[in-house]
Amino acid sequence: MINLADELLNDQASARSFTLKSNELGGQLAQQHYSNGMEFAGQNQSPQLFWENPPQHTKAFAVTMYDLDAPTGSGLWHWVVFNIPAGVHELKADAGDPTQNLLPQGAVQSKSDLGVPGYVGAAPPKGPAHRYLITVYALSQNLALDQQATPALVGFSMHYVTLAKASLLVYGQK
Question: Which PANTHER family match (predicted)?
Answer without folding.
Answer: PEBP (PHOSPHATIDYLETHANOLAMINE-BINDING PROTEIN) FAMILY PROTEIN (PTHR30289:SF1), UNCHARACTERIZED PROTEIN YBCL-RELATED (PTHR30289)
